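Hey, I was hoping to borrow your eyes for a little while. A protein chain has come my way and I'm curious about its shape. Take your time with it, there's no hurry, and the full record follows here:
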Amino acid sequence: QVQLVESGGGLVQAGGSLRLSCAASGRTFSTNTMAWFRQAPGKEREFVAAIHWRGGSTYYADSVKGRFTISTDNANNTVYLQMNSLKPEDTAVYYCAARNYYTYYDQSVRYNYWGQGTQVTVSS
């Protein structure tokens, strides 16, 4: 099993920045892809960004490309999401997720492990 714990959410004004963290524990060696998804009220969960532990390849949703950066601290089994130039439409609960494979990184149903989520609210 893998446990994921997110932190770093909060309230920020439009144009501001936040950094989310996701601490992974347990059988982390079995996972290859880490990702961030988000879910706004009344909407489906959507892909934000993904990264491979080994190799560091990164992938982004078009809506966040150029504003968000996903990264890892492999020594501490932690994944980060640096969010800059935040917009009100970025408001959502952000979830960290992990899966064993490299492919289908943008499909939430493919992920085996999920964190509890952290709220991000961007005011206009």
